[in-house]
# Entry
Amino acid sequence: MLETLRGSRSALRAAALLALCGGLVLAADHADAKRKKKGDSGPKVGWQKEESWAGECYYPPDYASMAEGPRRVAWNEGREAVMSQWRGDRGDGVSLDSNHIENLETAILSKPERTTPVLKENVEMCEKVMSGKATNADWEKWVVDIAGRLTEGECPFPPLDYTYFNYLSVNDEWQLPVNVCKGDDILVHGTEADYYRLEKGGPWLNVAGDASQPASGKMPCNIEGCLKGQLIMRFTGESHTQQIIPIGITTEFVAPEHGRIEVMINDDTLEDNVFKVESGLEHHTGIEIKPAGE
# Structure
């Protein structure tokens, strides 16, 4: 009988302990549920808006956790999303300068991985604007600033890895502009078989120019080696410095900085220049610009 009573007490103690533990677990679960209701349900992704904001902001997903294929798709979706807002497509009062948007888009498209830092910083700007702590002008300034930071030191033009061909006018000044990057090693060539005349009764010349007439001070290219009627080139760098050099038939040129090259005929009076006509066909000087070594 005594043993039975002792066993009953042990069973009751075990049951009470089990009930106590169960109650603590339920209480903990209940408290945790309350915390979940009050707290964050997880990271924001996509278009989100606080109650007091004037509009929504786009929150990018965690790109680092994605495989390469899905990440590239997500980059594209994120870029299109924020650009639609910058352009004013969302009707939330945001509208930024289209030229600034295009410049930043070009910087992103050249290296898609730039989407990640751009969208991360964009959220911060959007939150400030939507909460009234910043203006559209501040946002636009950021677009200009980050485009500059992303491309600092880089060439803003596509590489000259192709052959450019066009026809020269003997009546126009600097023409046929081609962008080049610092270090580009290029060849500029003019066709030899096409002739023009710089004045009535004058000799027929090609891009080599008139060897008997060194250039005068009134001509665009008047340094040593420049000839009248010769094909010449002007390089304008991003620092706004200019360099004019004689080309003739062919010249190799290495760009000292990012910039633009243009060509023309070395003459101080262009209006009376004419191409030669043979058998009813007019000559046309062709200009070829391509990477050296091709």
Summary: The first strand starts at residue 46 and ends at 48. The helical segments are 2-38, 68-86, 98-110, 115-130, 136-151. The chain has five helices and 16 strands.
